[in-house]
Amino acid sequence: MATIFRKIWDRHVVAERDDGTCLLYVDRHLIHEVTSPQAFEALRLAGRKVRRPLSLLAVPDHNVPTSPDRLEHIEDPDSRKQIETLRENARSAGITLFDIDDVRQGIVHIIGPENGLILPGITAVCGDSHTATLGAFGAIAFGIGTSEVEHVLATQAIWQKRPREMRIEVAGDLGFGVTAKDVILAVIAKIGAAGGTGYAIEFAGDGIRRMSMEGRMTVCNMTIEAGARFGLVAPDGTTLSYLEGRPAAPGGAQWESATADWRTLRSDASSRFDREETIDASRVDPQVTWGTSPEDALPVTGVVPDPSDHPDPAVRARRERALRYMDLAPGTRLTDIPVDKVFIGSCTNARIEDLRLAAGVARGRKVADGVTALVVPGSGLVKRQAEREGIDRIFTEAGFQWRLPGCSMCLGMNPDRLKPGERCASTSNRNFEGRQGPGGRTHLMSPMMAAAAAVTGRITDVREVLKG
Amino acid sequence: MIEKFIALKAVAIPLDRSNVDTDAIIPARFLKTIQRTGLGKGLFHAWRYDENGTEVPGFPLNRSACRKGKILVAGDNFGCGSSREHAVWALMDYGIRCVIAPSFSDIFYANGLKNGLLPVRLASREVRGLIALLESSPGSEIAVDLPAQTVTGPDGAAHPFDIGSFPKECLLKGLDEIALTIGHEQDIARYEREWKAKAPWLFLDL
């Protein structure tokens, strides 16, 4: 009686040490320009080779500019150097690269699924904590450091200790104006930013089953913000419909054998979990963060909390610090907080469904005076699809900027960043101090909520905007 | 690239904050390097310096008694956030070889061990006690003994800690884990043969 996580894990064990640490075979390895150069360099110094180059996909995403002139010129010499280094490493090792002039280029966690590289039952790693996104397909996918990237390049395997397992049941239906992003923010607020540390989290229940693959990816993406390296959802009809016909997905007779196998990838009814949590999706309101940790999420109808209300002195100190950084006073209604910038993008919320939802709010409205709003599609393919549907025009007519794909203002490694003191409604995943630029202030929310903030100039309950 | 770690007696720096994230340890704009070295200048940049680049006087790393600190004592969930190993490289480049906290993010903990930065988990009560001692007498030393798995505070009290037997051995001997794994090459190759036959779709190329 095993969980899906255990079933996939057990299939991948190549060897086991006395202390229970397992050498897991790695099926897919994705790399980007920021966390891979030191791994290739170390490999070269040790005289080692990339063991299975065709298991890899390389893409520049973190520091690429999103302005249209990026093909002619990348101003920042350090960014240019990292992109060139990735190109050279991919070329010399025989690794497929989606370069910045390739329509398939985009955020690493978005392009893997889009091209059918991420399948149920596989193991996938990337030097990036948001690799958990890929668990939405019923895969063991996790973020690793650069030393581990080097290890996987050299051996196609990685040593891991079996994590504990948690099951989070998302019961009921999501309400009007409520999306996967709101569900995961509510989950993080409930279990805390370290609540999932040491765990793999399986998301289950009606609320998850009725979500699209895009929504499931958003949920799994942010499991790391609850401390868990792994988030996953058992594959079902929605998963198979998404995968069928994608470039690297199996076809013909192989598709039949593969899907027969994938149907066995679910947690048996009597599986035991180390921890179980339930969240009633029908009672989740659109969420907004007020502080500097993703756990600081509240319903948009709420007010900024008073740190002195908390019994734990360490939590009080952290919250006081967060309010000082965010320049907010306890008791302020969240909907009274004005914003300077709006960012719709990132590996959390830059897939086609996210852009459709945000466009639904932007349609026929205008970005408020004094607000700068950016839409950064997650990949060239998402961008092309959105343009076919006219979504780009909805945004540009409303006064949003329509950019080229990349990580962009999620972490401000490229020129898209906040200035000190600027406040941003953002669909990204982290509201840490300085995350979007030194001194910048981030409020995390869904794409619909961010679009609503753009058109009103303050944090807004999207349900009010849509009701008109 | 692991640096040996056996024992260390050094000035310890108290950082009484929880959820110290990797963006705080090393902001993203410092990650635009293809080297592992030189990252110490970006360590805790937004906390160490004001917007003019002047040192913030109260910040623990800037206190004169803490300048030679090699041990950091911090709150819960240290190293949460991104997988950037640059956080560990920045700490080590600055001179930190050991971080003591009640809890760490999983990725930071693993990254520390791979480089020879020892992450030590102690109970919250013990960490609070150490921070109080370090705050009341800045510049005090802490002794870390990996073979004995103990941390000895400025007051002479010893605190035992847990660490896996394998990472401990790697740290003590400075072992190259990749070389050890290459010793399993036959197992890896056998695994590939078996699964290529069983599930060929796992080996499709783009």
Task: Describe the protein's architecture and organization.
The complex is a heterodimer of chains A (468) and B (206). Helix content of chain A is 32%, strand content 16%. Chain A is built from 16 helices and 19 strands. In chain A, helix 2 packs across helix 5, helix 6 (180-191) packs parallel to helix 8 (213-221) and helix 12 packs parallel to helix 15 (447-456). Chain B has 8 helices and 7 strands. The longest helix of chain B has 14 residues, at 185-198. Chain B starts with 6 loop residues before the first strand and ends in an 8-residue tail after the last helix. The chains are: A alpha/beta (468), B alpha/beta (206). Chains A and B meet through helix 2, helix 3, helix 5, helix 10 and helix 11 of A and helix 4, helix 7 and helix 8 of B.
- Poorly predicted tracts of residues of chain A: none
The SSE string of chain B, one letter per element, is EHHEHEHEHEEEHHH
Instruction: Kindly report how far apart the N and C termini of chain B lie.
Output: 33 Å
The largest sheet of chain B has its strands arranged as: 4-3-2-1-5-6-7
Cα gyration radius of chain A (Å): 21 Å
CATH class of the largest domain in chain B: Alpha Beta
User: Which consecutive residue ranges of chain B, at least 5 long each, have pLDDT under 50?
Assistant: none
- The outline of chain B comes out as globular
Please, what is the average pLDDT of chain A? 97
Shape-level CATH architecture of the largest domain in chain B: Alpha-Beta Barrel
Q: Return the structural class of chain B.
A: alpha/beta
Strand elements of chain B, count: 7
Main sheet of chain A: which strands, in order across?
A: 5-4-3-6-7
- Work out the helix count of chain B: 8
The dominant shape of chain A is globular
- Care to count the β-strands of chain A? 19
Oligomer: heterodimer
Number of helix segments of chain A? 16
Kindly report the name of the CATH homologous superfamily of the largest domain in chain B. Answer: Aconitase, domain 4
Q: What proportion of the residues of chain B is helical, as a percent range?
A: 25-40%
